[in-house]
Amino acid sequence: MKQRSSSVTVLNSGDVLGPVVRARRKSQSLRIDDAAALLGVSVDLMSRLENGQGSVRLDKAMAVLDGLGLALMVLPKEHPWVREAETALRTSHPGPQP
């Protein structure tokens, strides 16, 4: 597996998670079908999750995240980590933010 990324993503909409999952899978040089087999989910589920199409049960999404070495944290919006991540996002991607 390739080096792990330490980037933080604030999920402020449903379509943000998919690209994170896809990038993580690709950083580990896994094809979508290989990742699905390793994680015990269907290719269809992986595709829906990565493309933000349809719905994916939370337990399945959590299994994919865990299997790819990712964690989901739920924090109050006013938590310093959330503010830090949003500031970093604005700095690295200037322009209108949601």
TrEMBL record:
Organism expressing this protein natively: Malikia granosa
InterPro entries assigned: Cro/C1-type_HTH, Lambda_DNA-bd_dom_sf
Organism taxonomic ancestry: Bacteria, Pseudomonadati, Pseudomonadota, Betaproteobacteria, Burkholderiales
GO molecular function: DNA binding
Residues covered by the HTH cro/C1-type domain: 21-75
Protein name listed in UniProt: Transcriptional regulator
Pfam family name, one: HTH_31
Signal sequence range: none
